[in-house]
Design brief:
- It is a single chain.
- This protein has 309 residues and is mainly α.
- It has 16 helices and two strands.
- Strand 1 and strand 2 (230-234) form a beta hairpin.
- Helix 11 (179-194) packs antiparallel against helix 12 and helix 12 (199-222) packs antiparallel against helix 13.
């Protein structure tokens, strides 16, 4: 009743005409009346006004929501995005194949340029996909196809000397069953399992691509001072790996945050630093040479990332 009383017109709440006083009795006010009057602004009228105001407000959508709205979460959109992503990845590989044919870069440098660029460029295309359930699996088609290619080339079932030359250390096609196969498997795993909302996916790809790739390039040119526990690794290469992996991880954290996929925090930045240092220490250990740093680096990033994130 108090709510309705707050809504009525001031004319009706004014004192009634004299003749009506014979039939009306002034209402008695209880001690709780002032409290009820104080709560009158929260009455029905106020709630209606507030609901109208709230309904009139519009929240600015994030970039991720805008992409999802434009895409409609449709399977056809994600299939198109997967085709574009796979096309760019294959074009990038073809580009480095052509450079290897022409001898533009030495074989080791060409292999590391492929190692650095393919995974990092692939991450740039993740925002193209919708928030649909099948989006990460469709995005993983591109590196998944590369797994099949590495297997076919590494077993000799398919021939492509230019690709083998651009992705192997010595030109032996069987090498593709190790490092390049681990590389494609890592990116496929990060995409299909963790996707763009997880810092673990960022740490996996960035430490493998940027960190491990830069370590070899810098180590071969500036690595005169070797590590005491591994004469095949240098201080310069290890420092470059930790810095490159960390900076790439923070850069992609900002990138995905701009699309609304991830919330950047100082804790996450510190976590990326710890993961990069741990991956660098494992990569510099002789066990990485015996196994393969394309296996030990992402495995370390995954295990440490699980503990931190």
């Amino acid at each position: 009743m108090l709510s309705l009383g707050a809504c009525v017109s001031p004319l009706l709440s004014s004192p009634p005409h004299a003749p009506l006083l014979l039939y009306s009795r002034p209402p008695s006010r209880s001690p709780a009346a002032p409290a009820a009057a104080a709560s009158a602004p929260r009455s029905l009228c106020f709630l209606r006004r507030r609901s109208r105001f709230a309904a009139g407000r519009t929240r600015r959508p994030t970039m991720a929501e805008a992409i999802s709205l434009e895409a409609g979460g449709g399977l056809s959109h994600d299939l198109g995005s997967a085709a574009v992503t796979a096309g760019v990845a294959l074009a990038l590989l073809k580009f480095f194949e052509e450079l290897a044919k022409r001898g533009v870069f030495e074989q080791k440098l060409s292999r590391k340029l492929v190692h650095i660029s393919v995974g990092l460029v692939f991450l740039l295309f993740w925002p193209l996909f919708s928030s649909g359930t099948y989006a990460p699996f469709l995005a993983a088609l591109a590196p998944g196809i590369n797994i099949i290619r590495m297997f076919l080339l590494g077993t000799g079932l398919m021939k492509n000397e230019a690709m083998v030359k651009s992705m192997s250390r010595t030109g032996d096609y069987r090498e593709l069953l190790k490092g390049p196969l681990y590389y494609a498997t890592t990116i496929t795993f990060a995409t299909s399992v963790f996707w763009r909302t997880s810092p673990i996916a960022i740490a996996l790809v960035c430490n493998l691509c940027a960190g491990d790739g830069i370590a070899d390039v810098v180590g071969r040119r500036l690595g005169t001072e070797k590590l005491p526990y591994n004469p095949n690794k240098s201080y310069a290469g290890s420092i470059a790996m930790a810095v490159a992996g960390f900076l790439a991880s923070v850069g992609y954290m900002h990138y995905f945050h701009a699309f609304g996929f991830i919330e950047e925090t100082w804790y996450m930045v510190l976590g990326f630093l710890v993961v990069s240092i741990a991956a660098t220490l494992v990569e510099s250990h002789p066990i990485s040479s015996e196994l393969d740093d394309n296996l030990t680096v992402p495995l370390t990033s995954f295990l440490v990332g699980i503990l931190l994130f």
